[in-house]
């Protein structure tokens, strides 16, 4: 396995700082976040104003800069963290081309959020699923033309929160050009299935693994019926409800030897200490030869 960091989780660093720091710590690769997220006041955070993010607007003109930044640090690409909806064919085309030009091999295209789309369009899950399948078929064809792979992430609130749902969406498409990102932390929130079973179910579509952790906490509030209200929050790798060690063991049992990308959104430790500790923890769980 090789270890990388998704820059959604490194909001305080510029791209060059992220690449240089991660390389110095011993990470194998980086997964660049590409999305328009600048803030008016210049503040930074995981999801807005993230300084490690390459802005989507004009991204085709910044391929050379991304390549120089990555190459200068001696890092590989574990993939590209794109945010273009699969229904946005022009945006997906742009991201596939950028991925191809970088030699980054694979890029995430985002799936629709079920409740949000139902409110917006009135579509049932089945209707939304069928429309998304058609969009993904188109993306797979373009990915094949460009020699890259489009990735579907297991993500809570979307139409693919679980491995079973994702397999249903990608089944029959060419796994050389369509794959699934299995995400440990997201599955704490929605979509958990036995990990080994999920990996075996996905088979050749298992293309990438994201690792973060989460936990459910009691808000102290109750509903009108007297039941407790719980909410999820991100947690350090060791402290969430999912076992990272059991997850990595299941990946190995399934024969997975690809990228494991960390996207730790906890804030218990300062960023540099957090990324260094995460790498040390991963290495303690995975033999060097694995």
TrEMBL record:
Pfam families: AP_endonuc_2
Tagged with keyword Isomerase: yes
InterPro entries: IolE/XylAMocC-like (IPR050312), Xyl_isomerase-like_sf (IPR036237), Xyl_isomerase-like_TIM-brl (IPR013022)
Keywords, in A-Z order: Carbohydrate metabolism, Isomerase
Positions of the Xylose isomerase-like TIM barrel domain: 22-284
GO molecular-function terms, A-Z: isomerase activity
SUPFAM superfamilies the UniProt entry points to: Xylose isomerase-like
Keyword Cell cycle: no
Alphabetized PANTHER family for the sequence: BLR5974 PROTEIN, HYDROXYPYRUVATE ISOMERASE
Protein name from the UniProt record: Sugar phosphate isomerase/epimerase family protein
Organism expressing this protein natively: Curtobacterium caseinilyticum
């Amino acid at each position: 396995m090789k270890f990388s960091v998704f820059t959604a989780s490194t909001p305080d660093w510029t791209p060059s700082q992220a690449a240089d720091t991660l390389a110095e710590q011993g990470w194998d690769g980086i997964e660049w976040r590409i999305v328009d997220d600048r803030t008016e006041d210049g503040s930074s955070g995981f999801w807005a104003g993230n300084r490690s993010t390459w802005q989507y607007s004009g991204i085709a003109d910044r391929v050379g800069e991304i390549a120089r930044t990555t190459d200068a640090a001696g890092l590989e690409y574990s993939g590209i963290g794109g945010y273009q909806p699969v229904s946005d064919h022009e945006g997906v085309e742009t991201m596939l081309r950028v991925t191809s030009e970088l030699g980054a091999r694979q890029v995430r295209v985002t799936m629709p959020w079920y409740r949000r789309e139902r409110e917006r369009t009135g579509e049932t899950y089945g209707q939304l699923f069928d429309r998304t399948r058609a969009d993904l078929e188109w993306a797979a064809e373009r990915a094949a033309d460009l020699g890259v792979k489009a990735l579907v992430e297991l993500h809570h609130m979307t139409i693919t929160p679980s491995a079973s749902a994702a397999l249903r969406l990608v089944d029959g498409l060419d796994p050389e050009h369509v794959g699934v990102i299995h995400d440990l932390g997201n599955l704490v929130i929605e979509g958990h299935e036995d990990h080994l079973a999920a990996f075996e179910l996905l088979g050749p579509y298992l293309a990438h693994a994201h690792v973060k952790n989460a936990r459910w906490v009691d808000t102290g509030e109750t509903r009108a019926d007297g039941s407790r209200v719980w909410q999820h929050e991100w947690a350090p790798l060791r402290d969430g409800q999912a076992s990272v060690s059991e997850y990595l063991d299941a990946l190995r049992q399934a024969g997975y030897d690809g990228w494991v990308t960390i996207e730790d959104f906890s804030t218990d430790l300062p960023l540099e200490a957090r990324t260094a500790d995460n790498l040390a923890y991963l290495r303690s769980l995975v033999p060097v030869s694995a």
